[in-house]
Amino acid sequence: MRLTLGLIKSKLDEHGLGNDVQLVEVSPDGGRVDVGPFQAEFVRMTHSIPDAVAVALHTAHGTILHTGDFKIDMTPIDGRPADLARLRQLGDRGVALLLSDSTNAENPGRTASEATVGPSLRKIIAEAPGRVIVTSFASTPVGVSIMRPTVRTSNAELTSSAQAIATSAATSTE
């Protein structure tokens, strides 16, 4: 979760709030954390940004599960798939409220793994007769991590025209 904390810290610093907030690193691989009258549990999820987690809030009135935006990717680039077994356990025990978001969830079928992007991109760049311009959604470091090896093997150049992507790239290498 260091990447997530780094991105949040960068945004807080940008707005002069970095010293006003205490950031706490959590692990999706174990245990609950007391948060006021609740216990929070973090469950590993997959998305285009590494370290995505769902939050299970265990309350006196039942469990609230907030998945955040996610994508079920069984071969994620970071090698850490979503903890589907833990999600199933939570569901089997009962979830009082599910807050869930997954882009294009209403479309049937599956979306290809992020791992397929690199080889496809290398092929496109290698066969291109001229310049190739690639865009990336928001500040996803996965896009940057896919581009770096592609650029190295393609005699290409990687530049960024967006501050968010530059910040994300710098944070992802720290």
Notable features of this structure?
single chain; 174 residues; alpha+beta; 2 domains; five-stranded mixed β-sheet; 5 strands; 34% helix; 18% strand
Describe the structure.
Helix 1 (2-14) packs across helix 5 and helix 3 packs parallel to helix 4 (141-154). This protein folds into 2 domains: 2-101, no CATH class; 114-173, no CATH class. It is an alpha+beta fold. Strand 3 (53-59) and strand 4 form a beta hairpin. The chain contains 5 helices and 5 strands. It has a 5-stranded mixed beta sheet, with helices on one face.
Question: What topology, given as strand order, has the largest sheet?
Answer: 1-2-3-4-5
**So what's the overall shape?**
globular
Strand percentage, roughly? 15-25%
| Overall tally of structural domains | 2
Number of strands: 5
Residue-averaged pLDDT: 82
Q: What's the number of helices?
A: 5
**Secondary-structure element order, as H and E?**
HEEEEHEHHH
- Describe the main β-sheet briefly: 5 strands, mixed
| Radius of gyration, taken over Cα atoms and rounded to an integer in Å | 19 Å
Structural class comes to alpha+beta
- Which segments are poorly predicted (pLDDT under 50) over 5 or more consecutive residues? none
**Cα end-to-end separation:** 12 Å
Q: Level of helix content?
A: 25-40%
